[in-house]
Specification:
This protein has about 700 residues and is mostly beta strands. The protein has 7 helices and 38 strands.
């Protein structure tokens, strides 16, 4: 028997459920955000600044240039110079990160979808995905010091969802004894944005409070439809953090966050004999609280105990007063974790840790309404500093989940420094993505459309109920009963180089290859006597993404930089490609069916073969003016299947390639007052039918106040 695929003990959920109350109680006496580290000053104009400190890649602190895996740091200066207020704004303008707009704004990394990238806030997961997408516009940047990005699978340290990479937002660490910041700006579409935060650093204790709010009138790209493209909404985020040294080597940290969005729309639909008022309401609330107790030792080792809990809830209403459709979704997440970092001699840094996770989801469309799951995990990492020229990092994580087979996720990475101006990197590893609650427990019937969808866990029970009622007409020939849903698995390889041939020039290149197997897809199971189709979720497909990432920054002098980034991507569904090559997938042409030619197969939807970005940033000392001119470009990509054969093969299925240009001017009027104005999508590119999330040209202007006391 494979020891990695033994079902986890069923009583694990009961044990963790009893600990949940203890976790919540201890939040008041522990602390969070272990990633608040002092870092050296960085020149934010650099594409890769080797002095940057990163905590995500090793769960410790390492200089960016000493990491063996593809990684980068985006600083607060990068966000400020662009005028970015949300994570979606920042990543959407940087080549190599493709934002996709389905169920919110997600991000593709190395061609893998947004549901394969783990999003962290101060090292803890942000929950609340819709159809796999975690909306990056939920995450405000006002109080964020830097954004750390790891490309490639990192389940070896972070578990599920880290197949494509990890994006970690690190909150600002107070440095001045007292500091206050406030900003306000207005934008197109009746949008206003305000933010304020207070911070202190007194006697070793650090604390901060922040607020970020947006109010928008929404926009409408197609006046022929009764509803707006995006309705009016308000969105605010409040957060706070505290770090207190209990002794010289013992520190307690605590952190909390509350975010809420209220979305409303009202339209009148003309129906005989008159007009029918329809309303749409949407409320999204998510909060989190975490704590950490960290003990440092004279040897340089340290141990930390972390507790974290989070909740995400949505409520929607759509329809008329007499016919109102309501929907709700409620997710809870709690985690307890311990981590030890130990120095062994002068060449080995070992990290070991483990913990437990309890999740619960309650929704209208889940069988049983409320479902829970639990997970025990342990991880280990060894960083071997073999010599000044060579470093090796190995890590692995073991997950024992209550709902699927146990998983072991290893990773190995090497760094070679043959010259002070050159670094060579190579890494390989595996990752996994757990089946979602929807894929496991969904219970949904759309009678008018004639179909039902059941989650994999309760599929057999649902079919037995239908059989007992005599409703099953036939089963699909491909249906196999009793097969448990498995996590999606990936294997990835990255190899690259980074160098500075001479002062003022930095270049980088990275080759990547990702293979994801056991992709979870929806497929037909049976047909009922009334003609209704029954669907469920199965491990079916395999996909492959591979390509090249290039980057270069030219800085002839410190006040001017030009940064270019390019990605070549080849992304295919391996099973679909084999079927096309075998001539078993057809398309209709001139009233007749014919096999799809291999040359017509366009790969995965929503992937551009070529994409890139360019930024010119200049700083004038007098007046204190920063100019940021940016552009992004992507070639055509498939939108969705139009001819019913489930592959990208027809010209009508593509969105044309396009480019976007953005300009931001930032003027430091005084030491404490900064003015900013700019425009995104300067040439007003829109595509209402295929890109409704692109609102066209947006103007903005505002000011930022900063005061600090020594």
């Amino acid at each position: 028997m494979d020891p990695l695929n033994i079902p986890a003990r069923s009583n694990l959920a009961l044990v963790l459920a009893r600990t949940r109350f203890l976790l919540l109680a201890l939040l008041a006496v522990q602390s969070s955000a272990a990633q608040q580290l002092d870092s050296t000053a960085v020149d934010s104009l650099r594409f890769y600044e080797l002095a940057d400190v990163m905590v995500t890649a090793t769960r410790g602190s390492d200089r960016l240039g000493d990491l063996a895996i593809p990684a980068e740091v985006l600083t607060q200066d990068d966000a400020n110079a662009r005028g970015a207020t949300r994570l979606s704004d920042l990543l959407g303008e940087i080549g190599g990160y493709t934002t996709v707009h389905a169920f919110g704004t997600g991000v593709q990394v190395q061609g893998l979808g947004s549901d394969y990238t783990l999003i962290l806030l101060d090292g803890e997961p942000v929950i609340g995905r819709t159809s796999g997408t975690l909306d990056l516009s939920r995450l405000a940047l006002h109080d964020i010091e830097r954004v750390e990005v790891i490309r490639g699978p990192f389940s070896s340290l972070y578990g599920s969802d880290a197949l494509a990479g990890v994006i970690n937002l690190i909150s600002r660490t107070p440095t001045a004894p007292w500091q206050a910041r406030a900003s306000a700006r207005i934008e197109s579409h009746e949008t206003t944005h305000t933010a304020v935060d207070l911070a202190m650093n007194q006697g070793g204790a650090r604390a901060g409070l922040g607020f970020d709010g947006i109010r928008s009138g929404g926009y409408d790209l197609d006046l022929a439809t009764p509803e707006p493209t995006t309705p009016r909404y308000t969105d605010y985020t409040a957060n706070g953090h505290l770090a207190v040294p209990l002794t010289e080597r013992l520190t307690w940290r605590v952190r909390g966050r509350l975010a809420q969005q209220d979305q409303r729309e009202g339209v009148n639909v003309s129906l005989p004999p008159g007009s029918m008022p329809l309303t749409g309401l949407g409320l999204r609330t998510d909060w989190s609280a975490g704590s950490e107790l960290e003990q440092r030792f004279a040897s340089g080792s340290k141990v930390a105990v972390r507790l974290y809990t989070s909740r995400f809830r949505t409520e929607t209403e759509l329809g008329s007063v007499d016919d109102l459709l309501q929907s709700r979704f409620d997710q809870d997440y709690s985690k307890g974790e311990i981590q030890l970092d130990a120095l062994l001699g002068t060449k080995h840094l070992v990290t070991v840790g483990g913990g437990a996770i309890l999740e619960a989801v309650e929704a209208d469309r889940l069988r049983g309404a409320r479902r829970t799951s639990s997970n025990l995990f342990a991880f280990v990492q060894e960083q071997w500093l073999a010599s000044r020229l060579f470093e090796l990092t190995a890590s692995a994580r073991f997950d024992a989940h209550s709902d699927y087979a146990r998983r072991l996720s290893p990773m190995l990475a090497a760094l070679v420094k043959p010259h002070e101006r050159l670094r060579l990197r190579a890494s390989l590893g595996s990752g996994f993505k757990a089946p979602t609650f929807q894929q496991r427990y969904l219970d949904f019937t759309n009678a008018p459309a004639g179909y039902s969808v059941y989650g994999a866990t309760d599929l057999l029970a649902s079919l037995d109920e239908l059989e007992a009622q005599g409703l099953v007409s036939r089963y699909e020939s491909t249906f196999t009963s009793g097969v448990a849903l498995r996590p999606e698995r990936s294997f990835s390889v990255n190899a690259g180089a980074e160098g500075a041939p001479f002062d003022g020039l930095q270049v980088s290149a990275n080759l990547f290859h990702n293979t994801v197997s056991d992709l979870i897809e929806i497929a037909p199971v049976a047909e009922l006597t009334n003609g209704r189709q029954v669907y469920s979720y199965f491990n079916l497909d395999r996909v492959q993404t591979q390509g090249l990432e290039l980057g270069a920054t030219v800085s002839p002098f410190s006040a001017l930089s030009l940064t270019a980034r390019y990605q070549y991507l080849d992304a295919v569904d391996l099973d679909a490609l084999e079927a096309v090559e075998a001539g078993t997938i057809y398309r209709r042409e001139a009233g007749r069916d014919r096999p799809v030619r291999p040359s017509e197969y366009g790969g995965l939807f929503q992937r551009s073969r070529h994409s890139g970005s360019l930024e010119l940033r200049g700083i004038l000392a007098r007046p204190d003016l920063t100019v940021s001119l940016r552009g992004t470009v992507r070639t055509r990509y498939g939108d969705y299947d139009r001819n019913g054969n489930l592959v990208l093969d027809d010209a009508s299925e593509y969105v044309a390639g396009h480019a976007l240009v953005h300009v931001t001017l930032t003027h430091g009027l005084t030491d404490w007052l900064t003015l900013q104005a700019g425009v995104t999508n300067l040439f007003d590119y829109t595509n209402p039918a295929r890109m409704p999330s692109q609102p066209g040209r947006l103007w903005f202007g505002g000011l930022r106040l900063t005061t600090a006391a020594d």
